[in-house]
Amino acid sequence: MKGMNDMGLNVRNVSAHLVMAGAVFMGGEGVVMGQALEEAVSGKPAAEIAETAAEQTLSVDEIYMGGRARAVEVVLNASRSASPFFRANAMEAAAYTGDRALPLLQLGLDDRSEVVRFAALVSIGKLADPALGKSAAAYVNDSDPSVRAAAIFAAKKCGAEVNESYLAELLNSKDARQRRNAASVLGWLGNKSAVPMLREGSWKGRMRNPNEYEIDQIAFAEAIARLGEETALDVIRGKLYTGGAPDETRVYAVTVLGDLGDAKMARVFENMLNDTNMQVRIAAATTLTKLGYGVGGTVLLDASHYDGERVEMDIKSYLSQHKNREDNETYRRLLASDKALAELAGQIRGQAAFGLAMVGNAGAAQRVVAMLDDEMEQARLSAAAAMLKALTGQGVK
């Protein structure tokens, strides 16, 4: 049987870019109690850690401190994975691993995969540690254009002097991934003078690759909005209403609007909690949680238990209701592979973990900790990243 990657499916990871910043956000008493729990459960399975937490009256932070050692272990294991996808995700989570962060990110910089190097550099940039500026600047002439863009971002954020002009060139690339990565970097750098060329670059994307244009528009609009142009939000909002749009586009739009704090669309997000597609429901629930609305927890908890059988049932129901959507063939191919269904179920559980980690109650926290021993690596790694980030008080962005 073929897996999802072998089938060429393009299902976007909702947690594609974690924001790397902040220190541990808890009082001294909470740290002491959490450390005591961590020592009490050291070396135990995640499910037993969650059960131990449930037997005690513990805060969310204390529950997460109890699972912290296991979460770091999950990230370390992923950093040595044969899959560049998991190694890249480990680089995104690395900033929350305390004294493990710098060695992990250096490992990522030396990785043979450009995807992993890119993720490591983005994390370094968001850490903004001056000690890493020289290491980041060394990659501004990397063989991969996206890695070069990430190196410019990381070096600048860490205080190193590098030439940013290559980013403007990359906005005109024929490669959609490279265009979007360059746009993201320009948005993160915060230079408002980049707005005109981002607008122009977004328009050119339609001429080069019409099939990628919807995703291009969201990526460029996100960058423009980060630079203070709130009118760009309307471009992303419009993708929520596009009839027949692939679910990937809607998930991406909802996620980005959550990252940008767009509370004006809260009612729309709430309606999407009843969408026929679970990934859309998760994106809406996570965004609502991020915005401070307590209405998505049930969806997220349900999704954290998803399995291949439920994925199969949902796909069949979806296809019966949407016979002419352009993403239907992708879903039909999924039905032909038990392995692909299991992988997608694991991805769905992983996506749910990011929202659950922000819910802020003990039940959700216990479920996130239990997921550190999920059968699928994607779910384990997402739970670890979400939990470690929650311990910094940052939530998931």
From TrEMBL:
Stored InterPro entries: ARM-like (IPR011989), ARM-type_fold (IPR016024), HEAT (IPR000357), PBS_lyase_HEAT (IPR004155)
Keyword Repeat in annotation: yes
Any one Pfam family match given in the protein's UniProt record, by short name: HEAT
Keyword Translocase in annotation: no
Alphabetically ordered keywords of this record: Repeat
Molecular function in Gene Ontology: oxidoreductase activity
Name this polypeptide is given: HEAT repeat protein
Organism in which the protein naturally occurs: Poriferisphaera corsica
